[in-house]
């Protein structure tokens, strides 16, 4: 094989038009993801981008927008209980899920109805990709 997958560069989530400020308030203001400047050639398309660790989250404008309620990104975090508490304090609905052995995780919806997962793996649990 002459090519190799290195991982994900970014995840794009859709949103209705004219919601950039709402996206900034949520992704940067609540979640704490710094906004990153979009390339000049893409600014006219709308939307907003954020840094998430070594990856990026792109919020793109979509005509006839429908929220992603099943497909979703899963953000790996440290100190997930602190994130959960902060979200609850800010009035964000948190849906806990204990279906993965060795992981604590929960789901929330962004302001546009897109499902987001947050997961923290136990330090004693070696994540096995075959699971």
TrEMBL record:
Transmembrane segments: none
Domain VOC: 7-121
InterPro entries assigned: Glyas_Bleomycin-R_OHBP_Dase (IPR029068), Glyas_Fos-R_dOase_dom (IPR004360), VOC_core (IPR037523)
Top-level taxon in the UniProt lineage: Bacteria
Protein name: VOC family protein
